Amino acid sequence: MIAHTSRLAALFEKARAEKRAALIPYIMASDPDDETTALVIDALTDAGADLIELGIPYSDPLADGPTIAAAGQRALEGGATIERALQIVRAAHERNAAPILFFTYVNPVSQYGAAAFAKAARTAGALGAIVPDIPLEEVDAFAPAFHAAELALPLLVAPTTPPERAARISERSDGFVYLVSRLGVTGARREPDIHWIADAVARLRARSGKPIAVGFGISTPAHVRSLAGIADGVIVGSALIDAMAGKRGAAAASAAKAYLISLRAAL
Predict the structure, then answer these.
(1) Tell me: the pLDDT tens digits for 72-130?
(2) Which of 91, 152, 202, 260 is the most exposed place for a label (fewest CB within 10 A)?
């Protein structure tokens, strides 16, 4: 197995051996400050996170719902940068925190330089990055740089993606396939359609042997419990950020840990 996928594969294999789905929380870097982010990363690690998605704040986040967009805005107002996000990951890696996968967009990576970003992310200790607005036809503009740095580039399959295109996306996706559970942006206000998700996972599994993680709209222990026997991973973002709303430092970390423990127990 090639290096940029083997480290992610190991996370899913461990969860599978424990007869559960991998738990993947999402937080925004530097929201509301770097110290809080570091404490929250450690709290999520202690609560049993298998992998942490760390958002890089961006002013035009197309896939982000109101909660995550607001988190990014708070971070930007506090002076967040890619360099600071890299430093957060570097320090977390040195503390043996849960593995981290960046979540960013095409424009910030392009502005930084794909090769330079990939090299810096690898040096910091990240496993790769999710870049949701990369069209399948443009993956080759980023994938070679990521693979050269031994980083994974997981791709997204949306509810509107035709089956044949979904199969091609799955083939090009590294580490796992990110299945978007519903139309629209991220958020925790609508119930996920568990039956549709189960059918979508089955279709993808028939075409790809890669792990499938489900995100967008997953927010409660009941959601996680329902998905635990369907998907290989469960991604939770907006509801986690809501749980920390208005808090900083140890208070934010405590709230994040309590919330994630409730989800971990449901697995």
Answers:
(1) 999 999 999 999 999 999 999 999 999 999 999 999 999 999 999 999 999 999 999 99
(2) 202
| Active-site residue, from 53, 140, 193, 232 | 53
Tens digits of residue pLDDT in 211-228: 999 998 899 999 999 999
Residues 114 and 128 sit within 8 Å (Cβ to Cβ): no
Domain containing residue 97: 3-266
Report the C-alpha gap between 137 and 59 in whole angstroms: 24
d(CA 204, CA 178): 11
| CA atoms lying within 13 Å on the CB side of residue 40 | 33
pTM of the entire structure? 0.94
Per-residue exposure over 135-151, b if at least 16 CB sit within 10 Å of its own CB, e if not: ebeebeebbebbbebbb
How many domains are there within the chain? 1
How many angstroms separate the CA atoms of 245 and 177, rounded? 29
How many whole angstroms separate alpha carbon 245 and alpha carbon 41? 16
CATH number for the domain that contains residue 199 = 3.20.20.70
The C-alpha atoms of residue 267 and residue 208 are separated, in whole angstroms, by: 24
**Catalytic residue selected from 33, 42, 50, 64:** 64
Distances (CA, A) of 217 to 36, 187, 234: 24, 5, 10
Asked if 64 is an active-site residue, the reply is yes
77 assigned to active site: no
